[in-house]
Amino acid sequence: MILVLAKIAVKKGKSNELLDISKALIRKSRIEDGCISYNLYSDVENEDLFVMVEYWQDEKALNEHFETIHFKNFGVEISDVLAKDIDLDKYDLGELL
Amino acid sequence: MILVLAKIAVKKGKSNELLDISKALIRKSRIEDGCISYNLYSDVENEDLFVMVEYWQDEKALNEHFETIHFKNFGVEISDVLAKDIDLDKYDLGELL
Prior knowledge:
The structure is a homodimer. Chain A is of the alpha+beta class. The first copy, chain A, has a single domain, classed as Alpha-Beta Plaits. Chain A is built from 3 helices and 4 strands; from the N terminus they run E-H-E-E-H-H-E. In chain A, strands 2-3-1-4 form a 4-stranded antiparallel sheet. Chains A and B meet through helix 1, strand 2 and strand 3 of A and helix 1, strand 2 and strand 3 of B. Chains A, B: GO terms for molecular function: monooxygenase activity. Chains A, B: It comes from Methanobrevibacter cuticularis.
């Protein structure tokens, strides 16, 4: 199982735009074969900071996710909303028990 | 390094109460020796769901955290706000590089 924590920082006042842009990504990612869960959270102390918490069955599922149209579209649409590059931490949690 | 994802579900309408109760916990946890980061996030699709994302230097630091007064106080204060037990995932990410 793979855990991904994607930390997202948006420009001042752009949080609603991020929420709109993320809806399609979240909906379509959740129905991908190897997706266990895919949730977006907002930092309670700073409305411009978010984390996407994603659990994937394995590395293959995650790599396929990166190749999907909805993921690539997200990358394009979010580019002018981001304050800096998305900080993606990826952890291999071993076999899915 | 230890990563903790503590998923918190509160009763309907109790999210502000959780935010208040968490302030002291967050402030005091961040100044503990082995605490790398300690942040509370709110689920953008459900205001009653939260995740505390915590990075600890090692298991010893986390165990000491569980014994602190501010952690134990949090457990007492949050008990009647919780919709169900906190779901705590703990991952050993190996040596802090």
